[in-house]
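[step 3/7] fold_predict: job queued, chain A
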Amino acid sequence: MFGWMAFVPKQAHLEGALLGLLAHIPNHLDEVDGKYQLPTYVMDGWRNIECWLYSAITSLRGKFELPSFIPAGPSARGYRRAHASRSIALKEAQAARKIFVLWIGLLSNRKSGYKLCSGMAIFFSRKAAVPSVNY
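[step 4/7] structure written:
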């Protein structure tokens, strides 16, 4: 059930068009009504990545030996919300990024028959629009 955890990188190299936005958490946070949040472009980009990864996992689950258990989504850590302090907003963003890396590990599982790069490229070449996910 948790064998895919072996494929979670200890130090992720988040690069390229798909994952590059996850590479760095910006130092500048937006302040809205006295609360702190990631800049909108980061929240939107992370949400798109989360939707893409979730769609890839659920699509590949039926075809390959992906486990039925997947960790909670990165948005469960609140990267899309405003927080009372800057430090809380940064901690939640860091925690969310760690969950993204867990999901990447799940997709990198050898039993799935895909490595992240080739699997995502094949998956996205068949999808014209960004999927919308509600969970």
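[step 5/7] annotate
The chain has one domain: 3-8+28-125.
The first strand starts at residue 30 and ends at 32.
exit 0
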